[in-house]
Amino acid sequence: MGTSAEKRREAFIGIDLGGTNIKIGLFDSKLELICKTSVRTEADMGPEVVIDKMAQTVKELLADGDLSMQDVVAVGIGTPGPAKYSEGILISTTNMPKFKDVPICQMLNERLGAPVVFDNDANVACWGEHAVGAGKGVKDMVFFTLGTGIGGGIVSNGELLHGCDENAAELGHMIIYPDGRPCNCGQKGCVEAYASADSTARRATEGLEAGAESSLQEVLDEKGKITSKDVYEHLAAGDKLAKEITDGTAKALAITCINMLHNTEPKRIVFAGGMIAAGDVLLNRIKDFFDEHIWALKKETVEICFATLGEDAGIIGAAALARHTEQRGKSK
Amino acid sequence: MGTSAEKRREAFIGIDLGGTNIKIGLFDSKLELICKTSVRTEADMGPEVVIDKMAQTVKELLADGDLSMQDVVAVGIGTPGPAKYSEGILISTTNMPKFKDVPICQMLNERLGAPVVFDNDANVACWGEHAVGAGKGVKDMVFFTLGTGIGGGIVSNGELLHGCDENAAELGHMIIYPDGRPCNCGQKGCVEAYASADSTARRATEGLEAGAESSLQEVLDEKGKITSKDVYEHLAAGDKLAKEITDGTAKALAITCINMLHNTEPKRIVFAGGMIAAGDVLLNRIKDFFDEHIWALKKETVEICFATLGEDAGIIGAAALARHTEQRGKSK
Q1: Cα–Cα distance between B51 and B321 in angstroms, integer?
Q2: How far is CA B117 from its chain centroid?
Q3: Mapped to the 3 state alphabet, what secondary structure does B208-276 carry?
Q4: Which of A167, B64, B80, B221 is spaced 20 to 30 Å from A328 by Cα?
């Protein structure tokens, strides 16, 4: 048994820094949530103020959990980039225009005293699923978030894969239909241009505009737009256009799964993001198309599944990354 | 300065085990070739005889180099799989039907005494280029062999990426045209079905059969078939069909480069195999299509180039892998 002082240092902080809210979670050494909170980012106040507030909120959360900074082994933080993650520098981020080349790890470390690790939001969520969610127990995993766009993360041999300039796993921008639908990134035929929540909704709208008969027409007429949620609701009700659109999404994702299998060879492929609310109707179609299009050279055993951590993936993943980085450091 | 005995142990053996020939190279600690040889595999004699012969040839080669097994730090061997590489077991290999579940590392180690490391032929060639060839100096690289099929290798953060069942980097079977040309693997639209040497030649033949006017028709009439070499020769002479076919090959490879960039984010992408004899006319078209199809979000600096090790890539890579595995073992 260690001393009392040693025993106390076993908490981890996970921070999910978004343009609107800062979510902060306090976790024990098994990554069980002790307590969490959320505050407005107020990004227009600039990085000094935001990071002051972040540090203050961490301290208040610790007090709520009857702990202090002395109990915190490390802090993890996730944000959208681009960033020099390994150097702890946030280069810029769309929703926080005043954040330019911010040494976010150093600034937070100066205020809190604990080591701070930093990665992009998709990698952080990927790592959370790997540590305690749908990717638990495998060393090789691929992760997709299906939201406005499609984000990605790769775990290879038990570590996040970062690439030469820390921009690896931009998996939404793998081209699956050369010269296909335009993507916001400037490429054509990216999987994101077919299978994100936004693209799914847009393809449905285009289907109606092209004259397809569908119960979705009423939604468009009433609300002026269609969401991916509408598509899945009308699919459940047997709408033919909704089925076509869902099949297009599922096929694009299945082809991408096949390409990842032949690439980093994951044992598990995990989908997250708002669109997984569609449930088995989407997951099963992805598996159908995967089985239909995969090679015959050998039977593949990759598991395709949905994420399990939900809204807390960002704070869990950030805390998990902090814990992993500390453990790896000690094993060196 | 170490003792004399320590100083002598600085040689590495690289073995390229193919269905027809066994190539063996003896290298110094800087991976400079001391001497090499090639003997017939005679695979139908079965694994015991073949591995006896392999060990005997290694000893003869060492004698030629005025060295002995005492000078050999480690032995590397590359073959086509499938195999359990980390366990040293060759499961099977198309051109050597008598090789079934052969514990090749153990058998060779028993005969030679030195540690033996083992990987598939594409990974070995990739590692050779990474160590001393076109991929030297970068930690993240992607490698393609353009031959009968398309093989691949990925170096991520300075290590070969193997995947959950050691079948990662089957990059020829990434699907770039869903429902496109049938591939030998059973999938449709693989990059291999467009851009291997065989597929390039086949697409040219199909072009003629479809009525294209081309100087390649004479080749087909005379020889009964077209090779990729013919395509590039007639491209140089200004043939229009040859240009179309080359563009199809280059575009397929460029899309694949883009997909790898968004995936493991290599600093360098290296093409090897017989087809790179085409030279700059092919390389420049790949770069053209890459520039045309890559995203606009940021400028990419990935270098696309041809391999430099040529025919000896297999033995150099095997020796390099042996050296790397030994060095990594020591650093643990």
Answers
A1: 20
A2: 17
A3: HHCCCCCCHHHHHHHHCCCCHHHHHHHHHCCCHHHHHHHHHHHHHHHHHHHHHHCCCCCCEEEEECHHH
A4: A167
A59-77 pLDDT, tens digit each: 999 999 999 999 999 999 9
Q: Which residues of A touch B267 (CB under 8 A)?
A: 164-165
Cα–Cα distance measured from residue B321 to residue B310, given in angstroms and rounded to the nearest whole number: 17
- Chain centre to alpha carbon of residue B265: 20
Q: What is the ipTM of this complex?
A: 0.95
Q: Note whether B96 and B51 are within 8 A (CB).
A: no
Write out pLDDT tens, residues B63-107. 999 999 999 999 999 999 889 999 999 999 888 999 999 999 999
**Class of residue B319 by CB neighbours under 10 A (exposed 0-12, middle 13-18, buried 19+):** buried
Tokens, residue A204: 């449905």
**Which tokens hold the place of A185?**
């990134």
Do A175 and B298 lie within an 8 Å CB cutoff? no
Note whether B84 and B91 are within 8 A (CB): yes
> Residues with Cβ < 8 Å from A186, sequence gap 6 or more?
B295, B296, B297
According to the model, what pLDDT value does residue B81 have? 83
A221 by DSSP, 3-state: which? helix
Closest CA–CA distance from residue B103 to any residue of chain A (Å): 21
Chain B residues inside the 8 Å CB shell of A175: 176, 255, 258-259, 293
